[in-house]
Structures are given as structure tokens and as C-alpha cells.
Design a protein that fits this description.
35% helix; 6-stranded mixed sheet; binds adenosine-5'-diphosphate; 10 helices; 264 residues; Rossmann fold; 2 domains; alpha/beta
Length: 264
Amino acid sequence: MVSANNHRVAEWDGPIIVVEELRKRYGDVQAVDGVSFQVEKGEIFALLGPNGSGKTTTVEIIEGMRTADSGRAEVAGIDVGKDPRAVKHIIGVQLQSSAFFEHLQLQELLKMLGSIYRVKVDPEPLLRVVDLWDRRAASFRTLSGGQKQRFAIAAALVNDPTVIFLDEPTTGLDPQARHLMWETIAGWKAEGRTIVLTTHYMEEAEELCDRVAVMDSGKIITLNSPDALIEELIGRGFRRDHEVRAATLEDVFLDLTGRSLREF
Ligand code: ADP
């Protein structure tokens, strides 16, 4: 099931994503205003920023789902604007719940998605990793919100992608499910995949990401590793109001309720 594109990616030794001077306007709104960055192969890279700062538009241009007004986006050397179909074979995208046929079983849905990419899918490893193998014969409609979200993550892997895009992958999940998701994403990195995600959870970015870019008003205002950004802030004289304690409230919650997933 290794495609010509995957060979191309395996041999590609430059930055896996190159974005140069991207711009996109919607009427009066300059959603993306000259964004440039690169992502190295095997990185977990996050776009952070308040709502409306241009993260989704930027990511969707790289995925080939929206066209830029100007600028360039490349994945493994493929110009997304010129050849969006080629890019789709090497990327995995977390779809919204509305994209799934509600009445199909999870294992059927994964096989159907695989057929779109012309690959034969074995649902077992994909569903096991997100702890849904026991629900393989359940229809999507009967899943809880958190299970739907985990399924969408599994579905992003059907075409064995080299680069995975996740839009707020843990929003709305309980701490147990969030930790499972972090382990899943870290596992993909260990397999050599590259992950680009958006999140509003700073502890998630700090725990998971090699580098983060902070966007505001369509521009990247800073880009570095979480550690370096924190050090820079401290270097500018910042001090926390509260003393830092050896545990957080989340540690208390996980200690009391356990780390294993809860289903209802
Ligand atoms: P974020 O993901 O950071 O929340 P978005 O990329 O979704 O930001 O949006 C950036 C700006 O572009 C916002 O002001 C948003 O309202 C606007 N925008 C996004 N998509 C569209 C669209 N399809 N039509 C018009 N305006 C849009």
C-alpha cells in the first residue's frame, strides 16, 4: 500500500511543509496576512492564537481545501495550489462529525474512507489506538461526543499519511481521553509522522509540541519551541503571581478518578 507519493516523501529530506507569504482575504477581513513558516519532518507543530486569528484558513490552504490569494504552500515539495490531489494522498485530515455516514458501523466507515484513497484498510489497529475496537460494530450515530472525536482521529489515519492535520483534537474531551489522545499523537511522531495541530490548550502545546507558532490578526507573531518561548518571557522580567506547585488540579483529578478511559 506504499504509494509513489509515499516513496517520494520517504526520500524527501527538506522541510516537509514550506509556507511562504500566504495571504487570504474574505471581503473586508484579511484572514491570513503574509504568513511564512516551515515544519520539519517528524515534528509536532502547533498553530496557536485567539479565535479568528487565521489558523484554520492557513491550515486549510496547506491541506488544499482553500485557495490562497497569493503566496505558496508546499508539502514534501508538492505545490498545494498547483497539485492539491497529490497532496491529499500524503496528508491525513481530521474530518468534522458531519462528514461521516451516521448509520454505518465504525469498521465499515473506515473501509469506505479507505476506498476513497484506493487503499485496503484494516480497521483493527486504527480503532484499537483510540480505544474503540470494542465498538467496531456500533454505528457512528450511537457514539458519545468524545468517542466521535476519537473516531475522527482514527479516520485521519486511513491513508497511512505522512503529515497529519488536527483541528483542536482534544476540545471537549475529559482529562482521561485527552491523555489518550496525547499518547496517540506522540505515537505517530515516534513512527516518523509529522503532526500539525491547532489548540486552545496551552498545557497541550507545552506537553506535546516541538515548536509552536502564535498567530494574531492573520500574522505569526512568534515561533519557537515552548521552552524557548517561556525562557524568553522570563528573560523579559515576567514573574508569575502564584507560586508554582508540584502538582496541578488536573493531577488531583486524575489521581482521584484514574487514568483509564470512561465510557457512558
Ligand atoms: P481561526 O481558525 O484562528 O479561528 P479562521 O481562519 O477561521 O481563524 O478565520 C480568520 C478570519 O477569517 C475570521 O475573521 C473569520 O471570520 C474569517 N473567515 C474565515 N472563513 C471565512 C469564510 N469562509 N468567509 C468569510 N470569512 C471567513
